[in-house]
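hiii, so i know i said id send this last week but things got crazy w the move. better late than never?? heres the sequnce for the chain we talked about at the cafe, plus the structure i predicted for it. fair warning i was half asleep when i ran it
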Amino acid sequence: MLRSRERTVLVLGGAAAALILLVFFAVIPGVSQVRTLSRASSLAERELAELRGMRPELEGLDREVRPRAARVAAAANASESTLSRLTATIQEAGFPPSSVILKSGGTRDGEYFSEESFDLKVDNITYMEALRLIARIENGPLPVVVRTAQLKSRYDDGRYLDTTFRLGFLKPSAK
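okay and structure toks below
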C-alpha cells in the first residue's frame, strides 16, 4: 500500500495535471475567443458608425431613385417592344432616321431591376444637340439611363460629332 507521503505526492500531481489540462483546454481557448469577439465587436461598432454617417446620403439617393422606380413600373406594362419605344422617342427628337442607328446590346439582371442595353449611334450632330438628346432620353417618360457617351469630332467638319451612347432601359426584375 501507499504511504501517506506517496499519497500526498500522487494527489498533488493529479491536481497539477488536472490544472494544466484545464488551462490548456478551457482557459486559453476561452481567452482567445474573448479577444476574437472583442475585435469583431469593435469592427462592427466602427461599421455601424460609418453607416450612421452615410444615412443622409442614402436617404438622398433613395429620394432620387423613387421617381425613377415609379417610371420603371409604369413603363413595364406597355405592349410595344423596348426597341420600338426608344426609336419613337429618338424620332420625336427630330433626328433624321438615316443618321441614327440603334442596336440591342444584351440584358443585365440586378436585384430589383433588370437592364436591357442599347447602343445608339448618331452621326453629324452638334455638341448642344447631343446634350439635349441625353437630357431628353434621361428625363423623358421612358426609364432610360445613359451609361456612357463617346463623342468624336468629324474629320470633315470639326463643328459636328459622331456620337455613340450606351443606353440602359430599366425594367422590373423577374426575380
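btw The beta strands are 100-109, 113-125, 144-153, 161-172. thought thatd interest u
miss u guys!!
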